[in-house]
Write a structure and sequence with these properties.
Blueprint: H1 2-16, E1 26-28, E2 37-39, H2 41-46, H3 57-67, E3 74-80, E4 84-89, H4 91-104, E5 118-122, H5 134-152, E6 156-163, H6 168-180, H7 194-202, H8 211-233, E7 240-243, H9 244-249, H10 252-262, E8 266-269, E9 272-275, E10 286-292, E11 297-300, H11 302-314, E12 320-326, H12 330-342, E13 349-354, E14 357-361, E15 364-366, H13 378-395, E16 403-406, H14 407-410, H15 418-441, H16 454-463, H17 466-476, H18 481-499, H19 508-532
Parallel strand pairs: 5-6, 5-12, 6-7, 12-13, 14-16
Antiparallel strand pairs: 1-2, 2-4, 3-4, 8-9, 9-10, 10-11, 14-15
Helix pairs in contact: 4-16, 4-19, 5-13, 5-17, 6-7, 6-8, 10-11, 11-12, 15-18, 15-19, 16-18, 16-19, 18-19
Length: 540
C-alpha cells in the first residue's frame, strides 16, 4: 500500500543527498493533526555527520524534502519538531484503501514473505510432573500466536512441545506418589497437592514398581489427562510432542558426542565428558557425561540430551528454531546457543525468555492452589475467566515484563476490561452491518472519497497499518503489539461511530461508504483477533 511506496520514495531522496539510508522507518502518526505518517530519518542521519560538516536534524529534514519528488499520493509533507518529517496522504488515496481491504477480506494482512521457508516454534514444554502453571499458559499464548503470525506470512511452521519424560524429575514424581501412600519416607523436595493423592489412587496397583519406572507411567498419564486437555482449553495447537526418551532410544546422544569430538570441542577429564563452551563465551566448560564414582559408568546430563534434541530438529532444514523459555533459563539458554554454534548452526536458534506470572485478587497475590499445593493451575484460571481473556491478558505485555494478572479486572463485563472492550467493538460492527441488511448491499458501491472526516481518516490509517504489524512481527516476534493494536482499533472505531452517522447518512453514497468502512474495520479486527487466538463475537 501507500506506506511501502512512501518508504521507497523517501529512500531515494535520502540517497540522492549522499547518505546511507539503511532501514528507513515510517510510522503511523500518533495524531492525525500531524499527518498520516511520520519519519525520524533526519534524526538518525544527523548521527552520521561528524567534524565540521555536522548539521542539525532540522536542516537535514529540510534538505530531504527539497529532494523529495512530490508523488501523486501525497497532499503535503512538512518538517516538525526537532527534525521529524510528517506526510499527509491525499484523502481520496487513503479512503480508496478501504476498497482494498474489502476485496482481500480474510486475506487482508497476509503476505508470502516466508513462502518456501520452514520455521519451528517450541513452547510450553513443561515437565509432565503436574498441572500446567500460569507461566505455561503465558508461553502457550505467546508461542501459538507467534506461530499463527508466521503461518499467516507464508512460513511452513512446526509447533513443538518437548516432553521432559525422563531423568531426575520423573524419578521424583514416582517417589512423591510412593511417599504419599507411605511406601517411602516423605521429603521436602517431593511434589505436593491433591493431584499427587489422585495419582496414588489411580495407580494403586503399580506402587510396587521402582520410582523411575512408576514415574514414567505417571508422566505419560499426566501428559494425556492433565496437560493436553489444558492445552486444548487454551485453543493452543501442536504438530508434535517430542519425547526426551526418544533422544536416547534413537541413539542421538552418541551422534552428538561423535560430532563434538570430531570438531575437537569435547574432551574427557576425571572420567566425565566435557563441552568446550568456554571457547564460545561461557565462564567455564560444561559437563556432557557425568561419571558415577566406583561404577565405571557415565550418565548423559540433561544438557547433552537437549543438545541432541535441538540438533535433531535443526537438521530438518528449518531456517530458524524459536524456543520460548522461562527467564530462569537465561544462563542455560546461552549454553544451548553456544552448543548449536559449535555444531554449525550459528544464528539458527532464537530463544525468547519470558518472565513469570503472578495472580492478584482484590489487591492480594493468590499463591496457593488446593489441587497443585504450591501454585495456581492454568485450568483453575480458565475456570474463572475463560480462554479469550486468559490469552489476551497473557499477550498484553512484552515477554521480558512480569505479568501481574488482575483477576478482578479480567472478570469485569465492562469497557474497563480490554478484552470486553475489543470484542464489544467487533460485536457493534456486526450489529451495524446486520441492521443495514442485504438491501443496502445491493445499492451502488459507496464513494470512499467522501470519507474525509478526521475520525474516518484516523480509523482508515490504523486499518492499513495491519499488514505492516504482521510483517514486523515475523522479524521482532513481539506479538504483544497485537493487543495494543486491537485496543487502539476499538478506540478509533468508537470515536468514528460517535462522530459520524452511519445508518441513514446522507447522501446515500456516504452511507454506503461508511458501511464499507465499518465492514473493513470488522475484517481487520477479526483477522487480528484470529491471529491472537481470541474469538470475534457477532453479538454480546
Amino acid at each position: 500500500m501507500v506506506k511501502k511506496q512512501l518508504k521507497q520514495d523517501l529512500k531515494k531522496a535520502v540517497e540522492s543527498l549522499g547518505y546511507q539510508s539503511g532501514d528507513i522507518v515510517v510510522s503511523i502518526s500518533p495524531n492525525v493533526l500531524f499527518g498520516d505518517y511520520t519519519a525520524n530519518i533526519a534524526l538518525q542521519l544527523a548521527k552520521q555527520k561528524d567534524g565540521g560538516g555536522k548539521q542539525s536534524p532540522l536542516e537535514i529534514a529540510k534538505e530531504i524534502l527539497q529532494k523529495f519528488d512530490h508523488p501523486d499520493y501525497l497532499e503535503k509533507a512538512e518538517v516538525a519538531g526537532p527534525g521529524f518529517i510528517n506526510f499527509f496522504i491525499k484523502p481520496e488515496i487513503t479512503s480508496q484503501q478501504v476498497k482494498e481491504i474489502l476485496e482481500e477480506g480474510e486475506n487482508f494482512g497476509k503476505n508470502e514473505n516466508g513462502k518456501g521457508k520452514k520455521i519451528q516454534v517450541e513452547f510450553i514444554s513443561a515437565n509432565p510432573t503436574g498441572p500446567l502453571t500460569l507461566a505455561n499458559g503465558r508461553g502457550g499464548a505467546l508461542g501459538d500466536t507467534l506461530a499463527n503470525v508466521l503461518s499467516f506470512s507464508g512460513y511452513e511452521v512446526e509447533r513443538e512441545y518437548y516432553v521432559n519424560d525422563t531423568g531426575n524429575q520423573i524419578r521424583l514424581l514416582g517417589e512423591s506418589v510412593l511417599a504419599a501412600e507411605g511406601k517411602i519416607e516423605k521429603k521436602e523436595e517431593y511434589y505436593q497437592g491433591e493431584y499427587i493423592k489422585e495419582l496414588a489412587s489411580e495407580f494403586s496397583d503399580k506402587l510396587n514398581l521402582e520410582p523411575q519406572q512408576l514415574g514414567h507411567l505417571l508422566a505419560d498419564y499426566l501428559l494425556e489427562k492433565e496437560i493436553k486437555p489444558a492445552i486444548n482449553r487454551m485453543d493452543v495447537h501442536f504438530d508434535q510432542f517430542y519425547s526426551e526418551r526418544s533422544v536416547y532410544h534413537r541413539g542421538l546422544i552418541d551422534q552428538v558426542k561423535i560430532q563434538l569430538k570430531a570438531r575437537s570441542l569435547a574432551y574427557e577429564k576425571d572420567g566425565a565428558l566435557w563441552f568446550k563452551s568456554s571457547q564460545f563465551g561461557d565462564e567455564k566448560d560444561r559437563v556432557l557425561l557425568t561419571s558415577e564414582e566406583g561404577r565405571g559408568k557415565t550418565e548423559p546430563t540433561y544438557f547433552l540430551a537437549d543438545i541432541a534434541h535441538h540438533l535433531d530438529d535443526l537438521e530438518k532444514g528449518y531456517i530458524k528454531r524459536i524456543n520460548i523459555l522461562g527467564a530462569d533459563h537465561h544462563d542455560y539458554a546461552k549454553r544451548i546457543e553456544w552448543a548449536m554454534e559449535a555444531l554449525g548452526f550459528k544464528d539458527k536458534i532464537e530463544i525468547i525468555l519470558m518472565q513469570m506470572v503472578r495472580l492478584f485478587k482484590e489487591g492480594q497475590e493468590v499463591r496457593m492452589s488446593k489441587r497443585a499445593g504450591t501454585f495456581v493451575t492454568l485450568d483453575e484460571l480458565l475456570d474463572l475467566v475463560g480462554k479469550d481473556v486468559a490469552r489476551f491478558f497473557f499477550l498484553m505485555y512484552s515477554p521480558d515484563s512480569q505479568i501481574d494478572f488482575n483477576l478482578d479486572l479480567a472478570r469485569k463485563q465492562s469497557h474497563k476490561n480490554p478484552v470486553f472492550y475489543v470484542q464489544y467493538a467487533h460485536a457493534r460492527m456486526s450489529n451495524i452491518l446486520a441492521k443495514a441488511g442485504d438491501s443496502r448491499e445491493k445499492e451502488e458501491p459507496g464513494d470512499y472519497s467522501l470519507l474525509k472526516q478526521p475520525s474516518e481518516t484516523a480509523l482508515i490509517s490504523h486499518l492499513v497499518a495491519f499488514p505492516d504489524l504482521v510483517q514486523e512481527t515475523t522479524q521482532s516476534y513481539q506479538v504483544h503489539k497485537f493487543t495494543s493494536y486491537t485496543t487502539a482499533l476499538a478506540d478509533f472505531f468508537h470515536k468514528f461511530y460517535e462522530n459520524c452517522q452511519v445508518l441513514g447518512a446522507q447522501p446515500p453514497r456516504l452511507e454506503q461508504a461508511r458501511l464499507g468502512l465499518v465492514k473493513a474495520a470488522k475484517i481487520t479486527l477479526a483477522n487480528s483477533l484470529n491471529l491472537m487466538g481470541v474469538s470475534a463475537p457477532e453479538r454480546m
